[in-house]
């Protein structure tokens, strides 16, 4: 998707655009291993998968919080890390790892979760990579106790460095996934669009807006349509596409349930014209996925997308989600001519308020619930310009009630499997395809 | 529910109720686990101070001194729990005033599903280790017994 003038696209955005032109959904894993040899083998396996793939280098949690000393120590002691420590390895080592792939031009994105990403952006640029992910809000509130103000400054600077150093660089907003679950769609759409505007303001010409699958297919369908409409209204002059994340909350524990949820996200992506999908695996509820888990999930998702029949799936809702998201975007942009300052004011006034978010710069007055029809709704909207329709008898949240709320999707997908009496083993041991 | 507010960090002093400090580790940003533990601990009659995610060791130590909790509950699910836990408990136990403070840890402590860190973390200084795979019941029982353990120690 492109606005008026078509800016030149880098390797990553180019690969997505080429697949989109053929009507093929690009599928992408979350994948990061501590050692370069394993990381390289993982990328090679993703490239070889029977699907239109792009690769991912997911960074470990030490690198995310800027604690490179702990990452180095873990490497030296041979301890497990939950991702690839790009700064600890350094750009040279990372570049060697990529050059050793049979296709060194394979499109790869660095995914992290860092409120202060400058060092990571420099390392990926030095290593010859051209795509990453994040945003001043979406990589701050769910990922840190860093003040939002610092994240906005650091992201502004990092966008500029990325745009300057890497022609055609691509940046994806993580705004469609605030805390992974229980955030109503209109707010996800609005934050993604606002971060897209922020990226453009700081020099990027190739962006993607994200949306994480929530609790209801028709509601998600409406949200993705709203996102495309808002992107075409606000991102003129920038090349953009939409990326869907398979469900990001508490995941089914049976293999069959997990794969059914994965396939439903692939069908959702296909029928909404979404260009790219980031998958989850059957290991999600238990542990970091193996390469084999990921390849299996990529192929499963690609197959489901190919077989999707738009005439047999539920239509989009017509609940006014576009208007709600647009109102949120407009009321933020009105606060300040600079979108970064507007975001800061919006959070301090509670005009944006992410449910259940503990971050000190989030107002914490909003709450959400899953309604009878399985849709995610506002229980209370705090000071946001949206309407909350609380159900009768919404009581005090208990620990058990909290887990029941969070496991809505898990139960819906595991329930039928357990009733059929199969998949039971998945509950006690982690599924493995290795 | 009043959602915990991390930075504001203060709490009403509920005389008589045991005070429990809930915290993540330095590298872990997950918070649903922290909210769950807060609710559970409050229901079991504790006064909870939830200091949130990505808590550096120094901050944890400072918060322990500020709030003087009866127990500290560390939660981590990002796969670095064993590494972060071992480092933080070593630092905490090196402080003479905190060397006997009851501190437990739980969650998904490694990256491979089934984990084997219990003994190592106990040796490093935790009073109990709760692996995610064992469910929440062992923790409930521990909490029911814990106050008595403290009493016994006090009278011994
Ligand atoms: C939601 C989610 C997120 C959200 C979190 C937002 C937020 N601020 O909280 C987002 C999308 C941002 C996210 C990010 C990441 N995540 Co995450 N996330 C999840 C997910 C899908 C659900 C977690 C959840 O909400 N659970 C609900 C709460 C209530 O339960 P719980 O956390 O499972 O805890 C239970 C028990 O463990 C136990 N418990 C926990 N702590 C303690 C402590 C004590 C003392 C006791 C007794 C019990 C106990 O009690 C709870 C109730 O039973 C899980 C997978 C899943 N479970 O489906 C992955 C998961 C936890 N994430 C994971 C990872 C690795 C990450 C990242 C590092 C990214 C990455 N490399 O993939 C980053 C974190 C960055 C960082 N700095 O650490 C891994 C951890 C792997 C492992 N341990 O082997 C998981 C398992 C996914 C996976 N399979 O890869 N994540």
Automatic annotation (TrEMBL), chain B:
UniProt cross-references to Pfam families, sorted A to Z: B12-binding
CDD domains: B12-binding_like
Superkingdom, taxonomy of origin: Bacteria
Region (Disordered) location: 1-24
GO MF assignments: cobalamin binding; metal ion binding
Residues spanning the signal sequence: none
Stated name of the protein: B12-binding domain-containing protein
